[in-house]
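Sequence only, no structure available. Ideas?
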Amino acid sequence: MIRPLYSLLVIGAQPFLRRKLRRRGKAEPGYLHAVGERFGQYAEPAQPGAVWIHAVSLGETRAAAILIDRLRQLRPGVRVLLTHGTATGRAEGERIVQGGDAQAWLPWDTPRAVRRFLDHFQPSCGILMETEVWPNLVAQCKARGLPLVLANARLSDKSLTQARRLAGLSRPAYASLAAVWAQTEGDAQRLAEAGATVKGVFGNLKFDATPDAGLLDLGRAWRTASHTPVVMFASSREGEEAELFRVLQAGRGLAKVRWLVVPRHPQRFDEVAALATQHGLSVSRRSRWTQQPDEADVLVGDSLGEMALYYGMADIALLGGSFAPLGGQNLIEAAACGCPIVMGPHTFNFAEAAQLAQEAGAALRVGSMEEGVRAAVGLAGDAPRRDAAVHAALTFAARHQGAAEKTAQAVLALIAG
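Reply:
I predicted one. Tokens follow.
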């Protein structure tokens, strides 16, 4: 009885969701592309039998890219259907799809839209990346005998608590998945408690990413040319930049280093640049650089797909999302680029990775933004300590590789079965 009620609520929310798309589309025009797909309406025909991978946003799409690359190595000619929920995810996905592949929005979770989606694309299997489990989608896949799995799966304590509150809806959805391949033993335990059948702990796909060597080298060259240590605020979130700028405005952390702020969401690039100016800080934006960064109190990384460049520029990075109760962002890419991390108190979305990085010496935990600034500036100016942290970060990243091979082999077995 719970899922029919849920379906009625989602159906009733459709007009509000349309308005939400129009509002978001003003800042991010990508949300206005192919709106009909959100409701299971498609303009182009589709070829059945593709491996369907759902990667809701930017981080999941980058993880999916690693899996897709390994699948193509193991099974040349494999066709992929890549679906998303956010504009940044879809834009990143455009760089992944090849001839014969397809890309679309995942429809909102109404029975009719899900039915249209599955009827139209007729995939050979479905792979949900990390956390995306939708009750009607899972139920219809199970009814059709379409194997649907959760890969690179994670579930925080907070999300498990929410799942328990809605157990009548969430537990059947988790239980109906054909398999779950968890990132960590802790994730596996929480997912099992939520009702999932965990069939493997494969690690995190993001450890298998290879940073763009050209961007990394360019960033390092710029850092060397500046002769001043660079501290980066990586994937910063709303509210966190203002806190950082208040600390800098008070005179702490400006004299000895250059600051590089890379917002998590591209629609906030202008906002963050303006915010720095409002705090009396001079600003230089990546989009206006020519041969190298201009001199300024704060450099703003207002580009997509250049995180390796920014990590190459940085001596050390503050972890966005961890200085507000947002759960933190992924620190694996920083480690793979040899950039040590200073993280705040809130890393519940990546709790085990954060703990392992801290134990390995690749990351340092602090309790506040002011402590983070002080720690980052101190480490950036201490060459022996920083060199040790860089080595620890690279070693940490290399030690946890292998998830791509395990996951790709499991996907191929799923298709064969």
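The chain has a mean pLDDT of 93.
Hope that gets you unstuck.
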